[in-house]
Amino acid sequence: MEKSELMTTVSLIVAHGKNRAIGKDNVMPWHIPGDLKFFKAQTMGKPVIMGRKTFQSIGRPLPGRLNIVITRDVSFRAEGVSLSSSLEDALRLAREEVQHIGGDELMIIGGAQIYTQSIDLADRLYITEVDLAPEADAFFPETKAEEWTEISREVHAPDGNTPGYAFVISNRV
């Protein structure tokens, strides 16, 4: 492993419900403006890795970030993104970008299949815990509490149509 790979933090960022739900029919089951701001603040200027369905649900490349889309569909094309056929290749591209920009972190932003493939590689988790348990067809994988140390928690009370939520950042033990 190269020195740059050792210095690059692999982070997963997700918003999930009490039942680990992250989406249904390729749509997030809530709209929380504070979470969108948190996501932007944590990912800006860093390479982001996502699956094709996640990219299509966003609908465009995220500005200010190298967007790496993993897909097995060889005919898929999207302007403004780098395409990859595997998580391993996507991580290689992201690490090259981190080294190029002088950063230290890459972000994996979903969806469920990509999270499942990458959870064991993660060094850090940025989780927005949403105080709902919606019906879903996509879920964040289970984590083992003993493998993670919570380093920060910022709780937000429900407000109008917005459910309660908490920003939780954890590092691998």
TrEMBL record:
Its EC number is 1.5.1.3. GO terms for biological process: dihydrofolate metabolic process; folic acid metabolic process; one-carbon metabolic process; tetrahydrofolate biosynthetic process. The keyword Oxidoreductase applies. Pfam families: DHFR_1 (PF00186). Residues 9-173 form the DHFR domain. It catalyses: (6S)-5,6,7,8-tetrahydrofolate + NADP(+) = 7,8-dihydrofolate + NADPH + H(+). GO terms for molecular function: dihydrofolate reductase activity; NADP+ binding. Pathway: Cofactor biosynthesis; tetrahydrofolate biosynthesis; 5,6,7,8-tetrahydrofolate from 7,8-dihydrofolate: step 1/1. It comes from the Bacteria. SUPFAM superfamilies: Dihydrofolate reductase-like. Keywords: NADP, One-carbon metabolism, Oxidoreductase. The keyword DNA repair does not apply. One of its GO terms (cellular component) is cytosol. Key enzyme in folate metabolism. Catalyzes an essential reaction for de novo glycine and purine synthesis, and for DNA precursor synthesis. Belongs to the dihydrofolate reductase family. This is Dihydrofolate reductase. It comes from Kiloniella spongiae.
